[in-house]
């Protein structure tokens, strides 16, 4: 605003009904999220700028905010038998076809090919389109529901995409590969195995040591019994049944 002073002060506000998800700094125009947990896709916000003059002037524009849920568990992987550079060039049309046939809004997370070199990218006849479908409330559609709808509309999607690519199109659903085990988890597993092995070895040592001690104790007892049996009994019962010493009396001089 070319005006000076208060007349040149521009204030920003949201005029859409999505103020529960977003808010705006009225002085800087910075938009930030309030609560988009579990939501994804593109939000179109109507933003108004207004000066503070006597005859207040306003202007409005649409701001598109994309919430990325690339770590979502509801990502669906659609494999097309097309070169990746061709799919990338027609990504907007691919998105339109999916939205039209599925009946949901679609957010394309990424377009992927196993080959990244330029030569390979232009020659590989297989491209994976990873996307999330979300309903009118911007809630993610469960991946299984999206896959089921894809299977139902497979023929119609392929027919529509043939017009986009001007070529025969085959669309298939890819299943997510098992997530690789993190180094931290591997280290934890190895440590757990080592601790378990150490404990088992210690327990085996204790049991063997206890068994060895019992064996030696038993052997000592047997030896003592044998020794006792090797000596004459120093005590015996006399005719009256009382114990008397069998020791030979000392010789006395006559």
TrEMBL record:
It comes from the Eukaryota. It holds the Pfam family Cadherin. GO terms for cellular component: catenin complex. Keywords: Calcium, Membrane, Repeat, Transmembrane, Transmembrane helix. Gene3D superfamilies: Cadherins (2.60.40.60). This is FAT4 protein. It comes from Cinclus mexicanus (American dipper). GO terms for biological process: cell migration; homophilic cell adhesion via plasma membrane adhesion molecules. It is found in: Membrane. The chain crosses the membrane at residues 185-208. Residues 1-77 form the Cadherin domain. Signal peptide: none annotated. Residues 234-254 are annotated as: Disordered. Its main location: membrane. GO terms for molecular function: beta-catenin binding; cadherin binding; calcium ion binding.
